[in-house]
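Record type: ASSEMBLY
Status: queued
Input:
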Amino acid sequence: MSAFRVEHATRSSRIGLVVFAVLLAVLAAAPLWGGRQDLRLLAEIYAYVALASLWNLLAGYAGLVSVGQQAYVGLGAYVLFGLTIVAGVHPLIAIPIAGLLGAIVAIPVAALMFRLRGHYFAIGTWVVAEVFRLLASQISALGGGSGISLPIGIVTSIGSRQEREFIIYWLALAILVAVLVAIFVLLRSRYGLALTAIRDNELAARSNGVDVTRVKLVVYVMTALGTALVGALIFLQKLRISPDTAFSVNDWTAFVIFITVIGGIGRVEGPIIGTIVFFILRQTLADLGSLYLLMLGVVAIAIMLKAPKGIWGLVADRFGWQLLPLERRLTMADPAGSGAKARPSGQG
Amino acid sequence: MAPRELLKVSNLDAHYGDFQALFGVSLSVAAGQVVAVIGANGAGKSTLLRSIAGLMPARPDAIVFDGAPIGDTPAYRVVARGVAVVPEGRRLFPSLSVEENLLVGGQLGRPGPWTLQRVYDLFPVLAERRNQPAPSLSGGQQQMVAIGRALMSNPKLLLCDEISLGLAPIVVRDIYARLPAIVAEGLSLVIVEQDIVQALHAASHVYCLQEGRVALSGAAGSLTRQAISAAYFGM
Amino acid sequence: MMEWLNIILQGVLVGGLYAMFAAGLSLIFGVMRLVNIAHGDLIVLAAYVALVVTTGLGINPLVSLLVVVPLMALIGYALQRGILNQTLGPDLLPPLLVTFGLSVIIQNGLLELFTADSRKLQAGAIEVSSINLGGGLAIGTLPLIQFIVAIAVIAALQLIFYRTALGRAFRATSDEPAVAQLVGLDNRHVFALAMALSLAVVAIAGVFLAVRANFDPAIGPARLIFGFEAVIMGGLGSMWGTLAGGIILGVAQAIGAQIDPGWQLLAGHIAFLIVLAIRPEGLFPKVQG
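Status: finished
Output:
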């Protein structure tokens, strides 16, 4: 019989869950109310929310700051193209396989990369991504350095034009939901508790018996899996692949990092807020080309220096909100049974 | 003619976040005087030194040194004015040799009697080990390096934070035996100590802190054991 | 056989340039535990500054060093004092993200100012002259000068670090930032001086890069990676180790290029990964992590 209970939900998180459920229903029905352009834009948004959430999990929770996640985006994409073009696998089956291969490759990569600390780990992941890119450009069956388009036969094997649009859209939404659910489940589990401990004080966590390396490995592999899945889907939609686009630092790391920083690192809601802000900025400013990227850089630096917790961090701290029930609040059961509440322990 | 007042601490408060460590502490050191600050662990002795040294914020006029208010002056400028610190736990620079530790102490280039050679005269064992890495020395020798490093900035006031900590009694006696030579040059000392016997022996005036307040102060010879115990333990 | 010896020799010489890329990086990490992701882009910035100076003043690129080096040092001081000092602390995200943002800003700023066109600085006849070593071996004069300069730079850095008051200040502040204040060192100033020194080295590297090969705003990250690989292979905290790391990288790339031009970069990365796998502390480490 336990003398205490751990509670997760707060009023704002209950509202948040309801909002999410409604939103999900609306978005799932998008093919009914949205046009082709809308579906494509939404799918792109889902991809970025997923990528940013995964990067956030890696950097904000496990303390593994990677600037090389494009390695797995490209890996997932190339596995998709490779399996469909060379091995004749159906694209919809190739996608989960791409995710799986991403996870498998992540293990030896982690074995090497975990030998590096902090900033050097970050650059190391970049080197790995570069290696993948260079290897990909050696694969002549997939177009070598200039890349290749997905053959018509493979494209039509998914379905008719409209069927394809819907299927890819739903797949994007499904992958996003799966990623978010997986992250949520992880954070609610004992691994999540370990992650919070590691984030707060790695040495103390270790001395309390937390197998830090194992936890980090699990998170790294999980992130690689999700990233490869998203990568496969992104390029299925693009219908064309090349080493430079598949492994682009700008598209798959710079933007993702900016989204997470602006939205708020270390909080699950951050990437969602950040993606929305990012896409609003993009719709209004992308014509400016490199000036736009420059501005993003300035904004990211300004936020890092002045508001390091990002937009959601500011809001959540000010109002004590959380959109998802992830807080852990200790409730002591007192003998009188009135269940007096203790102070909340913070999110995650 | 009364010796001039070198350091005057008036009504000093200090906080670590929400925790208040010092409550209205007042203290005075005259030129050429040796003052001891004693008290139990956590009484606020180190906090007092850190505040004087400029490592902790304070009201500008809470700490007046040589006539100038330095309460809000950052540490690296306080040193330039003539206050030097022998930090608790020695805190030598581990990648530097003995001689380099001393040299970096003098990098401000303040004029005065203390040079590398004078420090070696005071602590001959350091001259023998001048090129060894600082961490390779014994505790007592490291303490000498820490004192020498502080002397190299030719200060007017030397703040010594628990120099007997972790050292064998014979080593402590040896070090304290050199203090008169240091004071003879005109230096003033504030000694923070848990070793009351040495502190009372070396100082002319004593302050006893208890939970962040001055519980007792007076000339070293005039305080009874009872009074000190009472102030120390707050009984 | 002679051909292979020539190739390896070229690799050794270019290793000097890589060591210069690495030296600035290593210095900053040693003093303030900061890894500057914009380091490569700053090298490219230096190259463009040299471009402006040489075309504006009509002087030889190697002479332009007299202007570029102090200018970059000044930029380094301002950058550290103005922005990077605020990111230092126990958390490694702020400096990493801020320098990453800086990298994006520099790349795109250069793109706006100079377009993506490839540039190159002309140093005159020295670029094509070579020294015959006999027996079929020959080395280019410019690569040799560059290698000698690299050694001189590393020797100078060692001298500064271990024989001057500035070097003591660097090491003391790096050891114990709080205690350094107690000997009168202003950390903000010391760190800014370190960054100034790092960018002075970056300036030299940038000018040599600009003379040696074509450059454009996007090549920064690759230089960062070369520098980083040289540091890791050589061993953290050891300047001469960094030279060794640079040479290994240069030789690996040269051998790779000889096997197949597309393998040049890959060979370097693989050499790095192998060293990381079998001797992660580097070949000549001085400092742990």
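Annotation: The mean pLDDT of chain C is 90.
Annotation: DSSP finds eleven helices and two strands in chain C.
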